Amino acid sequence: MMTQLFFFGVLFAFGLFLILADILKLPTLRTAKAMLNAGREDKKASKTVEAWLMSGAVRLSKLIRMDEYKRGRMANVLKAAGVSMTPEVYSAYAIVKAGAILLGMIPCLVLLPLLSPVLAVLAVLTYFKEIRKADEQLREKREQIEGELPRFVATIEQTLKASRDVLAMIENYKRNAGPSFARELDIVTADMRSSSYEAALTRFEARLNSPMLSDVVRGLVGVLRGDDSSVYFQMLAHDFKALELQRLKGQAQKIPPKIRIFSFIMLLCFLFTYLVIIAMEILNSLGGMF
User: Fold this and answer.
1) Can you spell out the DSSP letters for 93-116?
2) Tens digits of residue pLDDT in 124-152
3) Burial (Cβ within 10 Å: 0-12, 13-18, ≥19) of residue 235
4) Which of 102, 172, 174, 261 sits at 20 to 30 Å (Cα–Cα) from 279?
5) DSSP readout, 138-185?
6) Which helix (H) or strand (E) covers residue 9, if one does?
Protein backbone atom coordinates (compact mmCIF):
# COMPACT_ATOMS: atom_id res chain seq x y z
CA MET A 1 0.00 0.00 0.00
CA MET A 2 2.77 2.44 0.92
CA THR A 3 4.62 1.62 -2.29
CA GLN A 4 1.54 2.36 -4.35
CA LEU A 5 1.01 5.67 -2.56
CA PHE A 6 4.66 6.60 -3.14
CA PHE A 7 4.50 5.95 -6.88
CA PHE A 8 1.14 7.73 -7.08
CA GLY A 9 2.63 10.81 -5.39
CA VAL A 10 5.64 10.82 -7.74
CA LEU A 11 3.52 10.48 -10.87
CA PHE A 12 1.02 13.05 -9.63
CA ALA A 13 3.78 15.57 -8.90
CA PHE A 14 5.36 14.96 -12.32
CA GLY A 15 2.04 15.40 -14.12
CA LEU A 16 1.25 18.56 -12.14
CA PHE A 17 4.66 19.95 -13.10
CA LEU A 18 4.06 19.29 -16.78
CA ILE A 19 0.66 21.01 -16.64
CA LEU A 20 2.07 24.08 -14.84
CA ALA A 21 5.05 24.20 -17.23
CA ASP A 22 2.65 24.32 -20.17
CA ILE A 23 0.46 26.98 -18.54
CA LEU A 24 3.43 29.18 -17.55
CA LYS A 25 5.14 28.48 -20.90
CA LEU A 26 8.42 27.42 -19.28
CA PRO A 27 11.20 26.54 -21.76
CA THR A 28 12.11 22.90 -22.17
CA LEU A 29 15.27 21.49 -20.62
CA ARG A 30 16.99 21.28 -24.01
CA THR A 31 16.14 24.93 -24.73
CA ALA A 32 17.42 26.07 -21.33
CA LYS A 33 20.70 24.21 -21.86
CA ALA A 34 21.13 25.79 -25.29
CA MET A 35 20.56 29.25 -23.80
CA LEU A 36 23.18 28.61 -21.12
CA ASN A 37 25.77 27.22 -23.53
CA ALA A 38 25.34 30.10 -26.01
CA GLY A 39 28.02 32.75 -25.55
CA ARG A 40 30.07 30.84 -22.99
CA GLU A 41 33.78 31.54 -23.28
CA ASP A 42 34.92 28.37 -21.49
CA LYS A 43 32.85 26.14 -23.86
CA LYS A 44 31.83 24.00 -20.86
CA ALA A 45 28.47 22.31 -21.24
CA SER A 46 25.92 23.31 -18.64
CA LYS A 47 24.42 20.76 -16.27
CA THR A 48 20.77 19.82 -15.99
CA VAL A 49 20.42 21.45 -12.57
CA GLU A 50 21.88 24.70 -13.92
CA ALA A 51 19.33 24.66 -16.73
CA TRP A 52 16.41 24.32 -14.30
CA LEU A 53 17.82 27.02 -12.02
CA MET A 54 18.33 29.35 -14.98
CA SER A 55 14.72 28.85 -16.06
CA GLY A 56 13.57 29.95 -12.62
CA ALA A 57 16.03 32.85 -12.59
CA VAL A 58 14.67 34.20 -15.88
CA ARG A 59 11.16 34.23 -14.38
CA LEU A 60 12.32 35.85 -11.14
CA SER A 61 14.41 38.50 -12.92
CA LYS A 62 11.23 40.29 -14.04
CA LEU A 63 10.54 41.15 -10.39
CA ILE A 64 14.00 42.50 -9.57
CA ARG A 65 14.57 46.26 -9.72
CA MET A 66 17.98 47.98 -9.61
CA ASP A 67 19.09 51.60 -9.64
CA GLU A 68 20.94 52.80 -12.71
CA TYR A 69 24.38 53.02 -11.06
CA LYS A 70 24.30 49.48 -9.61
CA ARG A 71 22.90 48.03 -12.82
CA GLY A 72 25.48 49.78 -14.99
CA ARG A 73 28.37 48.70 -12.78
CA MET A 74 27.18 45.08 -12.69
CA ALA A 75 26.61 45.08 -16.45
CA ASN A 76 30.20 46.24 -17.03
CA VAL A 77 31.56 43.58 -14.65
CA LEU A 78 29.53 40.82 -16.30
CA LYS A 79 30.60 41.90 -19.79
CA ALA A 80 34.27 42.09 -18.82
CA ALA A 81 34.11 38.71 -17.04
CA GLY A 82 32.52 37.06 -20.07
CA VAL A 83 29.20 36.24 -18.35
CA SER A 84 26.35 36.45 -20.87
CA MET A 85 23.59 37.45 -18.42
CA THR A 86 21.76 40.63 -17.61
CA PRO A 87 22.28 42.02 -14.09
CA GLU A 88 18.71 41.08 -13.15
CA VAL A 89 19.11 37.46 -14.32
CA TYR A 90 22.50 37.21 -12.60
CA SER A 91 21.07 38.38 -9.27
CA ALA A 92 18.00 36.18 -9.68
CA TYR A 93 20.19 33.13 -10.37
CA ALA A 94 22.00 33.61 -7.05
CA ILE A 95 18.65 33.93 -5.24
CA VAL A 96 17.18 30.86 -6.95
CA LYS A 97 20.24 28.73 -6.22
CA ALA A 98 20.18 29.70 -2.55
CA GLY A 99 16.40 29.17 -2.46
CA ALA A 100 16.78 25.67 -3.90
CA ILE A 101 19.04 24.77 -0.98
CA LEU A 102 16.55 26.29 1.47
CA LEU A 103 13.84 24.02 0.05
CA GLY A 104 15.86 21.11 1.35
CA MET A 105 15.05 22.30 4.86
CA ILE A 106 11.42 21.15 4.48
CA PRO A 107 12.18 17.39 4.57
CA CYS A 108 14.99 18.01 7.06
CA LEU A 109 12.57 19.58 9.53
CA VAL A 110 10.68 16.26 9.55
CA LEU A 111 13.53 13.75 9.24
CA LEU A 112 16.68 15.51 10.56
CA PRO A 113 15.83 18.78 12.36
CA LEU A 114 19.45 19.28 13.46
CA LEU A 115 20.52 19.49 9.80
CA SER A 116 18.23 22.46 9.06
CA PRO A 117 20.58 25.21 10.42
CA VAL A 118 23.42 23.73 8.35
CA LEU A 119 21.34 24.06 5.17
CA ALA A 120 20.37 27.63 6.09
CA VAL A 121 24.04 28.62 6.52
CA LEU A 122 24.92 26.80 3.28
CA ALA A 123 22.20 28.71 1.42
CA VAL A 124 23.54 32.07 2.65
CA LEU A 125 27.12 31.14 1.71
CA THR A 126 25.96 29.95 -1.71
CA TYR A 127 24.19 33.25 -2.36
CA PHE A 128 27.25 35.35 -1.56
CA LYS A 129 29.48 33.01 -3.56
CA GLU A 130 27.26 33.25 -6.65
CA ILE A 131 26.77 37.02 -6.40
CA ARG A 132 30.57 37.51 -6.20
CA LYS A 133 31.49 34.98 -8.89
CA ALA A 134 31.66 37.58 -11.68
CA ASP A 135 33.96 39.81 -9.62
CA GLU A 136 36.22 36.83 -8.90
CA GLN A 137 36.33 35.87 -12.57
CA LEU A 138 37.14 39.45 -13.54
CA ARG A 139 39.90 39.61 -10.90
CA GLU A 140 41.48 36.41 -12.19
CA LYS A 141 41.22 37.64 -15.77
CA ARG A 142 42.79 40.98 -14.80
CA GLU A 143 45.69 39.22 -13.05
CA GLN A 144 46.33 37.04 -16.10
CA ILE A 145 46.38 40.05 -18.40
CA GLU A 146 48.57 42.10 -16.05
CA GLY A 147 51.02 39.19 -15.99
CA GLU A 148 51.44 39.58 -19.77
CA LEU A 149 51.69 43.36 -19.86
CA PRO A 150 55.48 43.51 -19.18
CA ARG A 151 56.14 41.40 -22.30
CA PHE A 152 53.57 43.42 -24.25
CA VAL A 153 55.22 46.71 -23.28
CA ALA A 154 58.69 45.37 -24.14
CA THR A 155 57.36 44.34 -27.58
CA ILE A 156 55.90 47.82 -28.16
CA GLU A 157 59.19 49.41 -27.10
CA GLN A 158 61.09 47.41 -29.72
CA THR A 159 58.45 47.91 -32.43
CA LEU A 160 58.40 51.69 -32.02
CA LYS A 161 61.94 51.82 -33.39
CA ALA A 162 60.65 50.73 -36.80
CA SER A 163 56.91 51.46 -36.92
CA ARG A 164 54.20 53.54 -35.25
CA ASP A 165 51.21 51.49 -36.45
CA VAL A 166 49.35 50.73 -33.21
CA LEU A 167 46.88 48.33 -34.83
CA ALA A 168 49.71 46.29 -36.38
CA MET A 169 51.49 46.16 -33.00
CA ILE A 170 48.42 44.74 -31.29
CA GLU A 171 47.68 42.23 -34.07
CA ASN A 172 51.28 40.97 -34.16
CA TYR A 173 51.38 40.46 -30.41
CA LYS A 174 47.94 38.82 -30.38
CA ARG A 175 49.39 35.73 -32.11
CA ASN A 176 51.59 34.94 -29.10
CA ALA A 177 49.32 36.20 -26.31
CA GLY A 178 47.57 34.08 -23.70
CA PRO A 179 43.91 33.06 -24.11
CA SER A 180 42.43 35.84 -21.94
CA PHE A 181 44.63 38.60 -23.34
CA ALA A 182 44.19 37.38 -26.93
CA ARG A 183 40.40 37.45 -26.51
CA GLU A 184 40.53 41.05 -25.28
CA LEU A 185 42.90 42.05 -28.08
CA ASP A 186 40.46 40.54 -30.58
CA ILE A 187 37.76 42.83 -29.21
CA VAL A 188 40.10 45.84 -29.32
CA THR A 189 41.24 45.27 -32.89
CA ALA A 190 37.66 44.77 -34.08
CA ASP A 191 36.62 47.93 -32.25
CA MET A 192 39.53 49.87 -33.74
CA ARG A 193 38.51 48.86 -37.27
CA SER A 194 34.91 49.94 -36.74
CA SER A 195 35.55 53.20 -34.85
CA SER A 196 38.35 55.57 -33.93
CA TYR A 197 41.54 54.05 -32.53
CA GLU A 198 41.62 56.30 -29.48
CA ALA A 199 38.00 55.58 -28.50
CA ALA A 200 38.57 51.83 -28.87
CA LEU A 201 41.62 51.93 -26.61
CA THR A 202 39.71 54.00 -24.06
CA ARG A 203 36.92 51.42 -23.98
CA PHE A 204 39.53 48.68 -23.61
CA GLU A 205 40.91 50.46 -20.56
CA ALA A 206 37.45 50.97 -19.04
CA ARG A 207 36.47 47.29 -19.44
CA LEU A 208 39.23 45.89 -17.22
CA ASN A 209 39.83 48.89 -14.93
CA SER A 210 43.50 48.01 -14.42
CA PRO A 211 46.08 50.67 -13.40
CA MET A 212 48.83 48.89 -15.35
CA LEU A 213 46.67 48.71 -18.46
CA SER A 214 45.80 52.40 -18.06
CA ASP A 215 49.50 53.27 -18.28
CA VAL A 216 49.87 51.21 -21.46
CA VAL A 217 46.79 52.75 -23.08
CA ARG A 218 48.00 56.23 -22.19
CA GLY A 219 51.25 55.54 -24.05
CA LEU A 220 49.45 54.09 -27.09
CA VAL A 221 47.15 57.11 -27.25
CA GLY A 222 50.27 59.28 -27.22
CA VAL A 223 51.64 57.32 -30.18
CA LEU A 224 48.37 57.89 -32.05
CA ARG A 225 48.61 61.61 -31.39
CA GLY A 226 52.12 61.76 -32.82
CA ASP A 227 54.10 62.00 -29.57
CA ASP A 228 57.56 60.49 -29.25
CA SER A 229 56.64 57.76 -26.76
CA SER A 230 59.79 55.65 -27.04
CA VAL A 231 61.24 57.01 -23.78
CA TYR A 232 57.86 56.58 -22.07
CA PHE A 233 57.69 52.89 -23.02
CA GLN A 234 61.31 52.38 -21.99
CA MET A 235 60.53 53.68 -18.51
CA LEU A 236 57.26 51.72 -18.45
CA ALA A 237 59.05 48.49 -19.43
CA HIS A 238 61.55 49.07 -16.61
CA ASP A 239 58.78 49.65 -14.04
CA PHE A 240 56.74 46.68 -15.23
CA LYS A 241 59.79 44.43 -15.08
CA ALA A 242 60.34 45.47 -11.46
CA LEU A 243 56.68 44.75 -10.67
CA GLU A 244 56.94 41.36 -12.35
CA LEU A 245 60.00 40.45 -10.29
CA GLN A 246 58.17 41.53 -7.15
CA ARG A 247 55.18 39.38 -8.11
CA LEU A 248 57.40 36.36 -8.80
CA LYS A 249 59.12 36.81 -5.43
CA GLY A 250 55.72 36.87 -3.76
CA GLN A 251 54.78 33.62 -5.49
CA ALA A 252 58.11 32.07 -4.52
CA GLN A 253 57.59 32.96 -0.87
CA LYS A 254 54.34 30.97 -0.86
CA ILE A 255 56.11 27.79 -2.00
CA PRO A 256 58.37 26.97 1.05
CA PRO A 257 55.45 26.30 3.47
CA LYS A 258 54.07 23.77 0.98
CA ILE A 259 57.49 22.15 0.54
CA ARG A 260 58.04 22.08 4.32
CA ILE A 261 55.13 19.65 4.75
CA PHE A 262 56.58 17.18 2.24
CA SER A 263 60.06 17.59 3.75
CA PHE A 264 58.64 16.65 7.15
CA ILE A 265 56.95 13.58 5.64
CA MET A 266 60.24 12.53 4.00
CA LEU A 267 62.04 12.97 7.33
CA LEU A 268 59.52 10.70 9.01
CA CYS A 269 59.99 8.12 6.25
CA PHE A 270 63.78 8.16 6.75
CA LEU A 271 63.41 7.82 10.52
CA PHE A 272 60.97 4.96 10.08
CA THR A 273 63.39 3.21 7.71
CA TYR A 274 66.26 3.51 10.23
CA LEU A 275 64.04 2.28 13.05
CA VAL A 276 62.99 -0.76 11.01
CA ILE A 277 66.64 -1.59 10.23
CA ILE A 278 67.65 -1.21 13.89
CA ALA A 279 64.71 -3.36 15.00
CA MET A 280 65.62 -6.08 12.48
CA GLU A 281 69.24 -6.09 13.69
CA ILE A 282 68.13 -6.36 17.32
CA LEU A 283 65.77 -9.25 16.49
CA ASN A 284 68.53 -11.03 14.53
CA SER A 285 70.99 -10.65 17.41
CA LEU A 286 68.43 -11.93 19.93
CA GLY A 287 67.66 -14.88 17.65
CA GLY A 288 71.37 -15.77 17.49
CA MET A 289 71.64 -15.75 21.29
CA PHE A 290 68.76 -18.17 21.74
Assistant:
1) HHHHHHHHHHHTHHHHHHH-GGGH
2) 888 898 888 888 888 888 888 888 898 99
3) middle
4) 261
5) HHHHHHHHHHHHHHHHHHHHHHTTT---HHHHHHHHHTTS-HHHHHHH
6) helix 2-24
Taking the C-alpha atoms of residue 144 and residue 31, their distance in angstroms, rounded to an integer, is 34
Tell whether the model's pLDDT for residue 35 goes beyond 60: no
Q: What CA–CA distance (Å, rounded) separates 201 from 144? A: 19
Q: Which residue has the higher pLDDT, 55 or 233?
A: 233
- Residue 187 contacts residue 204 (beta carbons within 8 Å): yes
Beta-carbon contacts of 96 under 8 Å, excluding residues fewer than 6 positions away, are 53, 56, 57, 60
Amino acid symbol at 284: N
Burial class (CB in 10 A: 0-12, 13-18, 19+), 58: buried
d(CA 245, CA 107): 55
Pairwise CA distance, residues 102 & 260, whole Å: 42
CA dihedral 72, 91, 89, 83 (to 10 degrees): 70
pLDDT at position 211 over 50: yes
Separation between Cα atoms, residue 9 and residue 231, nearest integer Å: 77
